[in-house]
Amino acid sequence: MKVSLTVNGKPMSGEVEGRTLLSTFLRETLSLTGTHIGCDTSQCGACTVHVDGAQVKSCTVFALDVQGSSVTTIEGMANTDGSLGRIQQAFQDHHGLQCGFCTPGMVMASAALLAVNPTPTEAEVRHHLEGNICRCTGYHNIVKAVMAASDAIPAE
Amino acid sequence: MQNFDFVKPASVAEAVAALGTSGAQALSGGQTLIGSMKQNLAAPAVLVSLTGIAALKGVSVSGGVMSIGAATPHAEVAKASGFPGLSSLAGGIGDPAVRARGTIGGSLANNDPAACYPSAVLACGATVVTNRREIAADDYFQGMFTTALEDGEIITAVRFPIPERAAYAKFEQPASRFSLTGVFVAKYGAKVRVAVTGASNDGVFRWTDGEDALQASYDPAAVKGLKVSPDGLIADLHGTPAYRANLVAVMTARAVAAS
């Protein structure tokens, strides 16, 4: 069957089976390999993308079930001139990554939070990132990065 | 995962017709079912997505009752106003991605013994509305992963009488965020109902000793020291039956304090 989506602002389509996951479609059909498959069991969050603005784990959504939707992946997070977007830059500035495998999911989850809550508390950031697992950083620098990318006034 | 035919009807009638085909299974948010299919624990021949049916979505409050369309995701219930105890429960299910996709109807149809929603439905004496009938909460839950739903029957909405005071307290398994033991307490005048999820091999149940104590005195201290029998409670690597039995009273007290 054919699935048609708007991905990072551009119309995209391809042939899929019923069982084709959104993550598989993004990576294997559209070659957008920034969306990572970590656990494939909906726990790690590395595959997080936005579907019509909502944060979802693309390994736990069928491509055909989001037919016609607007999808944003990590490839859509850079500035139009190709430089790092605000959240990405904050992750770099605050050492919010080490191996980088979880980072696309962390950035997408953080972007979803900041879109609805531009001034989160640190506790809100931690609560929001509960579905994204990082095995390197211990999370502290990720939280720092999200706070820096937010409009929240830094605590003294 | 085995392949299947995917259909996405726009109405309940079309969904019911599609579910009449051999090997058909309903799909709501898929946050449990897709994982089960990856492990071949479920292998439907036809998957009928319910998330394209507008009539199954939305939250409304009228006459002291909150009605929630079965395909409403947890994130929408978390944002709703009118029943803060239920919104708080919905806002604590899984993680933000799960809450964006998972639905109340899917949770109730699956009836996972550690799911959050069944406790609210049972404690509130809510009504599960299907395409065929209305089912009282007391009749709906029939044991682990077992409900009163018949083949081809689809939950369309859930109606909660809004309690005077209510709260959910969950002691969560930190990786899955399912409840090791979760308790929903709902107070309607002199009547108090306490429903426990995550603890029993038979799924959600009412803790009547706790209800009696809270009806006599609606105070966290009222359930302090009350013993719960560990018989029939879940034993797994996260907790023994005795551990869960202790949590029932502890989480009930916390729910009362938060209500």
Task: Give the secondary structure arrangement, pairings included.
The complex is a heterodimer of chains A (156) and B (259).
Chain A: E1 2-7, E2 10-15, H1 22-29, E3 48-51, E4 54-57, E5 70-72, H2 86-93, H3 103-116, H4 122-128, H5 140-149
Parallel strand pairs in A: 1-5
Antiparallel strand pairs in A: 1-2, 3-4, 3-5
Helix pairs in contact in A: 2-5
Chain B: E1 5-7, H1 12-19, E2 24-27, H2 33-38, E3 46-49, E4 59-62, E5 65-69, H3 74-79, H4 84-90, H5 96-101, H6 104-110, H7 117-123, E6 127-130, E7 134-136, H8 137-140, E8 155-161, E9 165-172, E10 179-188, E11 191-197, E12 205-206, H9 208-216, H10 241-258
Parallel strand pairs in B: 1-3, 2-3
Antiparallel strand pairs in B: 4-5, 5-8, 6-7, 6-8, 9-10, 10-11, 11-12
Which word captures the global form of chain A? globular
Mean pLDDT of chain B: 96
Separation, N- and C-terminal Cα atoms of chain B: 44 Å
Number of helices of chain B: 10
In CATH, the homologous superfamily of the largest domain in chain A goes by the name Beta-grasp domain
| Domain tally of chain B | 3
Rounded mean pLDDT score of chain A: 96
CATH T-level fold name of the largest domain in chain A: Ubiquitin-like (UB roll)
CATH topology grouping of the largest domain in chain B: Uridine Diphospho-n-acetylenolpyruvylglucosamine Reductase, domain 3
Q: What kind of sheet is the major sheet of chain A?
A: 5 strands, mixed
Give the helices and strands of chain B as they follow along the chain. EHEHEEEHHHHHEEHEEEEEHH
The termini of chain A sit apart by 56 Å
The helix content of chain A is: 25-40%
Largest interface: A-B, 29 and 28 residues
Number of E strands of chain B = 12
- Rg of chain A over CA atoms, rounded to whole Å, is 15 Å
Shape of chain B: globular
From N to C, what is the helix and strand string of chain A? EEHEEEHHHH
Which structural class do you get from the secondary structure elements of chain B? Answer: alpha+beta
Strand count, sense and barrel status of the largest sheet of chain B are: 5 strands, antiparallel
CATH architecture of the largest domain in chain B: 2-Layer Sandwich
